[in-house]
Amino acid sequence: MHTLALATGSRQQMLSITDRVQALVTDQGWRDGVLVLFCPHTTAALTVNEDADPTVTRDILTHLAAAIPHRGDYRHAEGNSDAHIKTALVGPSLSLIVAGGRVQLGTWQGIFLCEFDGPRQRTLWAQWLGA
Q1: CA 55 → CA 36, 51, 60, 70, distances in Å?
Q2: Is residue 35 exposed (0-12), middle (13-18) or buried (19+ Cβ within 10 Å)?
Q3: List of domains in the chain
Q4: Residue-level pLDDT at 127
Q5: What is the pLDDT of residue 68?
Q6: What pTM was estimated for this model as a whole?
Q7: Who contacts 20 (Cβ-Cβ below 8 Å, separation ≥6)?
Q8: How does pLDDT run across 54-91, given as a tens digit for each residue?
Q9: Are 80 and 66 a contacting pair, CB within 8 Å?
Q10: What is the top-level taxon of the source organism (predicted)?
């Protein structure tokens, strides 16, 4: 297992990590298989979405915030219940196909760490399943 250390800069952010993930694949010499990424935090998640137009990530965060506001009828005492709900909806892990040493993504796709309770230092775990 490998670990990626990441820093987020705001309370809600979609941090593009595509280059970091590809660099890990390249550095390890992984060629063909599956890379599993797992986020071991209850207020951050992982997703694949458009990474060509930054208004897409803005729209995602804006509409998640509208649907699940920071302040609401929550019982959790830490003041970050919205972050837990958003994380549950987006999810903690990704399985990414790697072929010929390249993470396989669509033309406009990128890999994102979704921060819902930052800014923070975050860790991702990466596990290689392949030859």
Answers
A1: 27, 9, 9, 21
A2: buried
A3: 2-130 (2.60.120.460)
A4: 98
A5: 96
A6: 0.96
A7: 4, 6
A8: 999 999 999 999 999 999 899 998 999 999 999 999 99
A9: no
A10: Bacteria
